[in-house]
Amino acid sequence: MDKESNNLHENKFQRVHVKEELSEELARPQLSFWKDAWIRLLKNKGAITGLILIVVILLLAFIGPFLNSYGMNDENYDAAYLPPKVKGLEWLGFDGISTIEVQGTSVDDAITRGLEGYEIDKEFVLDSTVIEEPNGDDIEYFKVSLDVDMYAANGLEDQYFWFGTDNMGRDLWTRIWEGTRISLYIGVLAAMIDMVVGVLYGGISGYYGGRTDNVMQRIIEVLSGIPNLVVVILMIMILKPGLLAITIALTITGWIGMARIVRGQVLKLKNQEFVLAARTLGANDKRILMKHLIPNVMSVIVINTMFTIPSAIFFESFLSFIGLGLQPPHASLGSLIDTAFDDYRVYPYMLLFPAVIISLLMIGFNILADGLRDALDPKMRR
Amino acid sequence: MRKYLFQRIIYMLITLFIIVTATFFLMKMMPGSPFNNLGGKMTDEQRVLLEAKYGLDQPLPVQYFKYMTGMVQGDFGVSFQYNNRPVTDIILDRIGPSAHLGAQALIIGSILGVILGMIAAIKHNTWIDYGSNIIAVLGISIPSFVFAGLLQYYLAVKLQLFPVSFWEGPIYTVLPTIALMIFPMAICARFMRTEMLEVLGSDYIELARAKGVKNSSIMFRHAMRNALIPVVTVLGPMTVSLMTGTLVIEQIFAIPGIGEQFVLSISTSDYPVIMGTTILFAVLFVVVILIVDLLYGLIDPRIRLQGGKN
C-alpha cells in the first residue's frame, strides 16, 4: 500500500489546463451562422432533393425553349394535336403514336367513320383492337381503338415535338418551359414584394410600439379577416388580366403573415442589450432597425419567403385555371393546364406534362423550405 | 372572455363592412356592363329601359345604400342572368352540393390526417413515418385541380371505376371528395405528427408508462387527446383551402354548386351573384376564424384570451 502511494509521485502527473494561452482558442473552425445553417441543410436529403429539383426546372425554364427550333407562337395547323415524339426514346412511349377510340355499327364501319372524322388515311393505322361489342342488346354498337402514327399521317415524319403539340400546332415543349418561367417569375416577384412590405410594416410596428403599433395592428386585424381568394378575384376583375394584375392581386394581402412574424421578433429583440448598446453609441432608429434588428430576424424572413413562393405559384395557376390569369397568347403552367382540360380525354399528354412540372416545382419549393426552416431555426420545427 | 368576444365581433363586423363596400365599388368599376353582350341587338332606348329596371341609372351612393339595406334583410338583389331570379334563391339552390362536398371532404380528410399523423409519430423514424411524410408533402404541394384532373383521367376515364362527372348519387361524390380532402388531410397529418411527438416526449407520458399503463391506453387516452388540441388551429387554413378548392373541383366534375356558379358568373359579369357569393365566402371565413379562436380558448384553459393580443 505504502509502496503504491509512493509510486504516484507528483512528477508523474501533468496538469490538463496548463496552457493558458491556448484556453481561449477554439477547437473547431469558427462558422458564421449562415455557413453553419448551410452545412445543416446539406445534411438534409429532402432539402437537397428539393434544391436539385428547383435548379433543374429553373435551368430548363431558361434554356429549354432554345433546345429546339420551334417558337412559342409558331402555329402550324397541319401539326395540331400531335402526340409527343423523341428520337431515341420511342420505347418510353415518346413514339408519336396516338390511340384514338372510334364508334360505329360494325368494326369496319367504326374504323371508316373514325378515319374520316380524324382525316387519316388507312395505311397509317398500325393496330386496331375492339374494346366494346354489342352484348346481347339489339343495338349494333362497336367501339374500336386505333393506334395511329400521327406524324406519318400528317406527312411530318421528320419532325420531333418532344412534348407534342396543342390545338394550334404549337410546340408544347417550348410553351411549357416558357410557361414555367412565367410561373416562377410571378412566384418570386410576389414573394419579394411581400417580403419588403411585410418586413418594413412589421419592423416599424414592432419597433415603435405604443400608439403606432396599436393602429397598425388594428389595420392588419381588419385586413386579415378578408379572404385572400376574394381579394385576388376582385382585383383581377377590375384590373386587366395579365402579369401585373396577378402580381398586384397576390401582394395586396400577401404581406400580412410576414408583417406579423417580423413584428413579433422585433418586439422580442428590441429590449435586448445590443440594441441598448447601439443606442448609447448614438445610432438612430433607422440604423438600429436596418443594421441591428432586421439582420437578426433574417432567418425567419428567409423561411417565410421560401414558403410564400410556392403558394404564389399555386395561386397564379389557380387563377389561370378559372380563367382569370394570363390571357393568350401568353402561357403559364396554370393556363396550359386549363387549355389541356378541354380535350384531355383524347390528348392526355397535354395535361400530363404541365401537371407533372407544376407538381414537381411545388414539391421542390415545399421540401426546400421545410429543410431551410429546420436548418435555420431548429426551434421552429412544426 | 365576454369582453374579448365583444371586441372580436366588432372587428368582424368592421371587416365585413369593408369587404361589402369594397366589393360593391370594385364591381361598379369593372369594365363591361351586363347588357354589353347583346351588342348591336339592342337599341339605346332598350338599354336605358333595362338599366332603369335594374336601378343601374341611379347615382352610385343611392345604389349602394339600397344594396346595403337590402342585404341586411337578406336580399342580395336579382341576377342579371337568370330572368330576375333573386340571388338568395340561386345561392340557396346551389349551396347543397357545395356544403355536402365540403363537409364530407373536411370530416374524412381530417380524420384520415389525424390517424396518419398519429401512426407516423408512434412509428417515428420508420418507413411508415417516411411514407406518411411523403404523402403529406405531396398533398400540400400538388394543386387540387391537377390532382383532380389526374384522378378523373386515370380512375374515371381509363379504369371506369367511378363516373367522370355530374352529381347524381353517392358514387358521384367519391372522386371530388378525394380531390378536395387531400390538402386538409396533409395539413392535419403534419400537424398531428409534430404535436404527437412533442406529447410523447413529455413527463406525464413517462409517468404513465412508469405506472404501467397499457400502451394503447397511453396512446389514445393520454397522448392523442392532448395532441389533438392544437390541431384545432389548422381549421382556419383548411376552410380557406376548401373554399378555393370548391371553385375548381366543382368546375372539373361539373357539380352544380356555389363554386361553379361563381366562376360562371365571373365570365358573364353577373354582378349581384358575384357579390352575393363573395359576401357568403367572407362571412364563412370570418366566422370560422372566430369559432376556431374561441374553441381553442375553451379547450385549452392555459390560453387566455385577452384583448386580441398575440
UniProtKB/TrEMBL annotation, chain A:
Domain ABC transmembrane type-1: 180-369
Keyword set includes tRNA-binding: no
Membrane topology (UniProt): Multi-pass membrane protein
SUPFAM superfamilies the UniProt entry points to: MetI-like
InterPro entries registered for this protein in UniProt: BP-dependent_transpt_permease, MetI-like, MetI-like_sf, OppC_N
Gene3D superfamilies with a match to the protein in the record: MetI-like
Transmembrane feature ranges: 47-67, 182-207, 219-238, 244-262, 297-326, 346-372
Gene name per UniProt: opp3C
UniProt KW keywords: Cell membrane, Membrane, Peptide transport, Protein transport, Transmembrane, Transmembrane helix, Transport
Pfam families tied to this protein: BPD_transp_1, OppC_N
Family, per entry: Belongs to the binding-protein-dependent transport system permease family. OppBC subfamily.
Protein name from the UniProt record: Oligopeptide ABC transporter permease
TrEMBL record, chain B:
Transmembrane segments: 9-27, 101-122, 134-156, 171-192, 227-253, 273-299
Annotated coiled-coil segments of the chain: none
UniProt keyword annotations, A-Z: Cell membrane, Membrane, Transmembrane, Transmembrane helix, Transport
InterPro entries per the UniProt record, alphabetical: BPD_transp_1_N (IPR045621), MetI-like (IPR000515), MetI-like_sf (IPR035906)
Domain (ABC transmembrane type-1): residue spans on this chain: 95-296
Localization annotation: Cell membrane
Bilayer disposition of the protein: Multi-pass membrane protein
Principal subcellular localisation of the protein: membrane
Domain of life: Bacteria
PANTHER family: DIPEPTIDE TRANSPORT SYSTEM PERMEASE PROTEIN DPPB-RELATED (PTHR43163)
Family from the record: Belongs to the binding-protein-dependent transport system permease family.
Protein name from the UniProt record: Oligopeptide ABC transporter permease
Source organism per UniProt: Gracilibacillus marinus
